[in-house]
Specification:
Blueprint (H helix, E strand, L loop, with lengths): L19 E2 L2 E2 L4 H16 L10 E5 L4 H14 L2 E6 L12 H15 L4 E5 L5 H14 L3 E6 L5 E3 L6 E3 L9 E7 L4 E7 L4 H11 L2 H12 L3 E11 L14 H21 L4 E6 L14 H14 L6 H13 L12 E3 L7 H13 L5 H4 L2 H11 L20
Parallel strand pairs: 3-4, 3-6, 4-5, 6-11, 11-12, 12-13
Antiparallel strand pairs: 1-2, 7-8, 9-10
Length: about 400
């Protein structure tokens, strides 16, 4: 059973339009989000079943992006029972719920109709309380889980032991950074300049986005006796091209991702004792609530989309997550690690011909030619669809009830 607030406010239907503030849309459309979820489910259903796939899966950060795609891929590719953990906002007094809430509602409705077990827990994944409740849910309903996906993205974290709250920053390390970026809403090429992070900001970002919470989750699952022998756990990361490195790979986020990789090594050593494993999957750049907040990256993504679509190589979250499960982790396939022990799902993005063309376009792009040099329309479309807008077949002029439960 879904562990969510029981109070609901019944309101008349309303027309819900996108309201964008900076890099966030503060509204979401329930029918559009449902259509977006169904689109991903339909993709997986068209693929061959995942042989020897996971049967009982916990996804931490399950309501959007790669986490949601992981849940859908496991459920509809392998018939897995899934438990999802997330922190989303329900509708209240006529205000639309968050996109992740609507996504999860749609997934639950469809999973139930298709005879798939699905349970979700809404709350702060960093807290001991949510970990305890999740362990209880698994113990009562499933006994154990054989796959644990950690896909949490948050700007802040309150430490469960000390109570201290840390805030992450998107900054370079060591020197000021200046480069092109984009105002996607206005379709304008801009310039961004960022001061280097302080040591405290670096450590705070590692505390939020590094591997400590992932390890605490595995601790809690092991101590609760709900991690199956031979279980796999993985977390997601990104590397990207050198032009983004000052703000990503070599910046505060990159420092946190390095900590995540060290955590993977420690967890892998622990789990191997019982034939389990832990690793990092490096994914391709996609439009997400997290990536849209990083300077430079949205412009890079709009160029990357143009090149990869022209070459027939483009993938979104669901295509990558299904590829990970079907051609790397299961179906009697062996994981293909790089020299750092990471699985590279960004292999198509980082192909030499792709990156050469993106780099050439980067030098050319201006506000005047942005519509021809980039796929800014594709970027904006993906951004809107994150919140349920711009989905084919949805009447956005029709009144809808924002209060969705399941």
């Amino acid at each position: 059973m879904l562990d969510l607030p029981t109070q609901h406010f019944t309101v008349a239907g309303m027309v819900i339009k996108p309201r964008i503030r900076g890099f966030v849309c503060i509204t979401a459309h329930p029918e559009g989000c449902a259509a977006h979820v169904q689109e991903q489910i339909d993709h997986v259903k068209k693929q061959a079943p995942i042989a020897e796939g996971p049967k009982k899966v916990l996804v931490i950060g399950a309501s959007t992006g790669y986490g949601l795609a992981s849940r859908i891929s496991a459920a509809y590719g392998a018939g897995a029972a899934t438990v999802g953990v997330f922190f989303e906002r329900p509708s209240e007094k006529g205000r639309p719920a968050s996109a992740g809430w609507y996504n999860t509602a749609a997934f639950h409705r469809t999973a139930k109709a298709d005879g798939l077990y699905a349970a979700s827990i809404n709350g702060d994944a960093f807290s001991d309380e949510i970990k305890r409740r999740t362990v209880e849910q698994i113990k009562n309903d499933l006994g154990t889980v054989d796959l644990v996906v950690y896909s949490v993205a948050s700007p802040r974290r309150t430490h469960p032991k000390t109570g201290e709250t840390f805030k992450s920053v998107l900054k370079p390390i060591g020197r000021r950074f200046r480069n092109k970026s984009v105002d996607a809403d206005k379709e304008e090429v801009t310039e961004v300049e960022l001061e280097p992070a302080t040591e405290e900001e670096i450590q705070n970002t590692v505390a939020v986005m590094g591997g400590e919470d992932w390890e605490l989750w595995i601790d809690a699952l092991e101590e609760g006796g709900v991690l199956a022998p031979g279980a796999t756990t993985l977390a997601y990361s990104y590397i990207g091209p050198e032009l983004t490195w000052p703000i990503y790979h070599d910046g505060t986020i990159g420092r946190a991702k390095a900590d995540l990789e060290k955590t993977a090594d420690r967890l892998d050593a622990r789990l191997k004792v019982d034939r389990g494993r832990a690793f990092i999957a490096v994914n391709k750049a996609v439009v997400s609530q997290a990536s849209s907040a990083i300077p430079v990256v949205p412009l890079y993504i709009s160029l990357l989309f143009k090149v990869m679509k022209e070459k027939g190589l483009h993938e979104g979250c669901i295509e990558q997550m299904h590829r990970l499960l079907a051609t790397q982790m299961y179906n009697h396939r062996a994981l293909n690690f790089d020299d750092r022990g990471r699985v590279r799902l960004d292999d198509l993005e980082m192909r030499g011909d792709v990156q050469k063309e993106v780099a050439a376009l980067w030098d050319q792009v201006t506000t005047e030619n942005i519509r021809t040099v980039t796929d800014i329309e594709g970027y904006k479309s993906d951004f809107h669809q994150l919140f349920g807008f711009g989905m084919p077949g949805i009447d956005y002029e029709k009144d809808v009830d924002p209060d969705v439960s399941w």
